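Q: Okay, next protein. This is Sporulation protein from Bacillus methanolicus PB1. I've checked the sequence twice, so it should be correct. Can you predict the 3D structure?
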Amino acid sequence: MDNGFFKSVEKKTGVNMKDILDLANSLQNANFNDEKTIRGVIQKVSQIAKKPVSKDMEDKIVQSIINDGKSLDFNSISKMLNNKN
């Protein structure tokens, strides 16, 4: 991808693209049936997005992924974080 594109996204979101790419790489072989793995991803996304996640919200996201079979990707977690109210 174009380096200018990444700089533009960083400027608009305040999120470091290296952090996002590192997270994306770590998700490629992750076991999303493992609660510990899911919690780690949620915490990493929370850290990158600079949006704290309460224990209750983390539990809901984990249950949604494990029990309801929802997929885990940056976009779905981000939506859950934004709708935490």
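A: Here is a summary of the prediction. The chain has one domain: 3-82. The mean pLDDT is 80.
Q: Noted. On to the next one.
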